[in-house]
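Field reference: "sequence" (input) and "structure" (output). Example, FMN reductase:
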Amino acid sequence: MKLVAVSAGLSTPSSTRLLADRLAESVRGELAGQVQELETEVIELRELAVAVANNLVTGFPAPPLAAAIDAVTGATGLIVVSPVFTASYSGLFKSFFDLIDPDALTGKPVVIAATGGTARHSLVLEHALRPLFAYLRATVVPTAVYAASEDWGSGGDAFTEGLPARIRRAGGELAALMAARASEETPEDDDVAALERQLSDLRFD
């Protein structure tokens, strides 16, 4: 089982990367004891910016970009986090996912998340990120996570959930979908293994 987080943060350190890491930690915590092994990878799009631009022009991905695309399309579950630029996801974020085959994310469980300087941009999750992954036919979990500057270290109040609670809820939803998807694939794998054993027995006979 593999969990991949895509961070489109441009600075170092980055609140976008921090949110991606916190979400990944939440998913790992939820799946602890349920799966024997969970591989986790974080992709920093900042490091692939030149390769993404070149791919858009030439149509050929450099090896690091090709590896990142393979990691995203091969993941059991996906976390995507973008900073907000002009009330939407970043151009780098969109350019990267423009390189993904439109059918490659079909049915893949995804948590969408974003960071910004003010809570006024939180609707970017619903008017930009969710439609993008709906178009890619991914399965987007109900809870999306937005982190404004004032959300870090905030526990919320009697009427609103704080950022840690939203991260836990989104992580739990993604973990449940990943576990369900893995269990659906297991019987098929068992059937293949059983068939291989039967064929092996026939050869020995």
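The chain has a mean pLDDT of 88.
The first strand starts at residue 2 and ends at 7.
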